[in-house]
Amino acid sequence: MGHVALLGDSIFDNHAYIAPDEPPVIAQVRERLPHDWKATLLAVDGSVMSDVPGQLARMPDDASHIVVSVGGNDALEHTDMLAESARSVAEVFERVSALGEAFEVEYRRMVEAVLRRRLPVALCTIYYPAFPDPGIQRLAVAGLTAFNDVILRVAGEAGLPVLDLRLICTTPADYANPIEPSAQGGAKIAEVIGTVVTEHDFTKARTAIFIYRRAG
Fold first, then answer.
1. Can you tell me the distance from the alpha carbon of 141 to that of 129, in angstroms, rounded to the nearest whole number?
2. What is the pTM of this model?
3. Domains in the chain, please, with CATH?
4. Mind listing the pLDDT tens digit for each residue in 40-80?
5. Which of 12, 4, 103, 1 lies closest to 50 in space, CA to CA?
6. How far is residue 28's CA from residue 194's CA, in Å, rounded to a whole number?
């Protein structure tokens, strides 16, 4: 019997963004786990990386696996940079590099806190948004590169599996709004969570990338 704890932000705590008759991510995770497993939602809409230790403090004593999806709101704090002017490409790269370095400090601190629980851990990348304006979408995707690079490198160094949300939520219908998952997107996320926690061999400290693959 396993018990999956979901930590992070509205990627998991998406009930406020879907219709009342639609299932949130946590309900869909429970449906996709073996019948004797449990899942607990500790993620809170709007959370940033520094909120994760507080979520860990509420983790059930019998938790067996931790899945973390956080960092998107930290990245959103810098969206104003997309509208800033720059004198050169070098200046743009310098700004992006500085943001990535600051993100890495906080992300490593968060992952270290999670790993201190000595449980199997899986991390999630920050998925691409779904802005209707193609120009804004391109800028947002480019801007997220530095942050996702941090997540993948930290996961690789620690030997943790990664749910690559960029390859899980891939269609407009997967989004309830430009930055939140819909019930359909939540179903995809839940399916991959179920695969990771039940099929990945956490004893080998081997990083693997998990994506959504349509049946058939």
1. 7
2. 0.92
3. 3-210 (3.40.50.1110)
4. 999 999 999 999 999 999 999 999 999 999 999 998 776 55
5. 103
6. 10
What is the SS3 assignment for 180?
Answer: strand
* Distance separating alpha carbons of residues 128 and 172, to the nearest angstrom: 11
**Interatomic CA distance for residues 137 and 72, integer angstroms:** 15
Radius of gyration, alpha carbons of the chain: 17
User: What tokens does 23 get?
Assistant: 């299932």
Closest CA to 28 of 186, 181, 164, 173: 186
pLDDT tens digits, residue range 12-47? 999 999 999 999 999 999 999 999 999 999 999 999
Q: How are beta strands 175-177 and 180-181 bridged, if at all?
A: antiparallel
CA 7 to centroid of chain Cα atoms: 9
